[in-house]
Amino acid sequence: MSNIVGRMREAFRGDQRVDPDGLIARLEALRQFLGAVDGQVPDAQLVAAHTVVERAGTRLALSRDHTVVALAGATGSGKSSLFNALARLDLSPVGVCRPTTGVAHACVWGPLGGASRLLDWIGVLPRHRFVRESPLDGDDESGLHGLVLLDLPDFDSVQRTHRLEVDRLLGLVDLVVWVVDPQKYADRVIHTSYLREFHRHRDVTVVVLNQADRLPPAELPRVLDDLRRLLDADGLAGVPLLPTVAVDPDSLDGLRAALERTVAERQAALRRQAGDVDAVVAELAPLVAAEPPRTGPDDASARELTRALAGAAGVHAVADAVESAYRHRAGGTTGWPLVRGWRRLRPDPLRRLHLPGSGADADEPAESLVAATSVPDPTAAQRSALGLAIRAVADGSGAGLPAPWPTAVTAAARSRLGDLPDALDRAVAGTDLGMDRRPAWWRVVGGLQWLVTLAAVAGLGWLALGYGLRALGLPALEYPRVGEAPLPTVLLLGGLLAGLLVAALTRPVIRWAARRARHRAEKRLMVSVRNVGEEYVLVPVRAVLSRYGRAREALQDAARR
Description:
The structure is a single chain. With 561 residues, the protein is α/β, with parallel strands linked by helices. It folds into two domains: 2-287, 3-Layer(aba) Sandwich (Rossmann fold), CATH 3.40.50; 299-440 and 511-559, no CATH class. It has 19 helices and nine strands. The chain has helices at residues 2-12, 20-37, 47-62, 79-87, 113-122, 160-170, 188-195, 220-233, 253-265, 268-284, 299-313, 315-334, 337-344, 349-352, 380-398, 405-413, 420-429, 440-471, 487-559; strands at residues 67-73, 105-108, 129-131, 147-151, 175-180, 205-209, 241-243, 481-482, 485-486. The strands form two sheets. The chain has a seven-stranded mixed β-sheet, sandwiched between helices. Helix 7 (188-195) links the parallel strand 5 (175-180) and strand 6. Helix 1 runs parallel beside helix 9 (253-265) and helix 12 (315-334) runs antiparallel to helix 13 (337-344). The two termini are 33 Å apart. Residues 1-15 and 359-371 have low confidence and may be disordered. Residues 69-210 form the G domain. This is GTP-binding protein EngB required for normal cell division.
């Protein structure tokens, strides 16, 4: 007896207690993980985690003073007989017809009221609940006070509903006593479908070889050794393995001692939930990598994305239009007044694109921004380059991440692809191209042109007046002279030549200033386009990477024991 109890203590590892606060913290970390991966990981991979979080929270909230123990086994293993023997009452039906137990029966040691909500959650019908408390027992049953013992249906029942009920209940109980018999202890179903799945719940698993009286005394150790070998292969090394005979109360002393210790510790529910968390964390571990993720794409990919967006937005076409518009407007202001009129017949390049600053004159009110400009649509090559740039951002950002995160990163990078054309158009339309005001030197040169033109017109008028007087036979005018040339002639020719000279001198300056205006506008447009890429491509990608980082940290916290 002492050897059995010693093995039970070693198997249950009573010195390794589960801290309730630590378990709650792990569950909260698992809940945070689920929140972080919501929408990024297929729901089918998260069902078990959601179930554990919900089930563990409910179980711990219902009662920590009760320990739910289930007797599970195959048809004919004697679960019901063992259930009645432990209760010392005939509570669960025992018969020859199989299966005998179709629904779970519960026996509660102590007042039933405290366990009612727990049994409601487990799903045991009120008519199948029994109380094991009698004044006649004295202190005989006090060691099991707080035990809720369940007799489950047969897991290998021919009725599928029985098997489904067993599977459901096995996920809710705190400790499972697997009851096997000498004939079917090596059955493949119990080992592959059940015992092997409980390898993370060794602390709350007991295996009983019932009906041991059917074996010759010399064969019992051999059968126990063989069953131990099978349990070790199932990953249940060290779990308690006890021979029992339901009709012999003395053979149940080891099992009762184990149950009394479990009830006294009040650790079975915590260990069961901790094992469930361990199992879920191990299942979810492939979803995160050991190394922390990068925070976003590298600089080269971001720059390539900006260049591709600039091509799709027509930045270079707009910059060309700015340069042409600058020359057009500067020529119209600083050119010879006699030929300015024909310049105005030519359309303004920015006006044709419906861009800001397209007014032909600085004194004109700027046109209101429209939803769509007339910037040329991107070519097939530009659209392809943009697609490749977005793909490069996604591939670079998701490199090294476990599945399905690279797919999630790619989906995030392309999530707003349909909105990009309008966003780029608005960004170009909303960019200040620096063309709303005329430079002061335009006015100076323009005033000079008007001055020399007025001089030429004055000279021409003066000469025309003298010619008219002579034609009418009136006394001729005496023109002042500049050297040998009459002053009106000097004014006429000088004004014409000065206007042409000023225009020739300012033309190189206009070209230089137009190139500067183009460069300035191109820089501003690139900033606007980069902001669009940041908002519509990089921010969604960084959001996924941030969620991955939070999920990784949360799962690490959930794994800490």
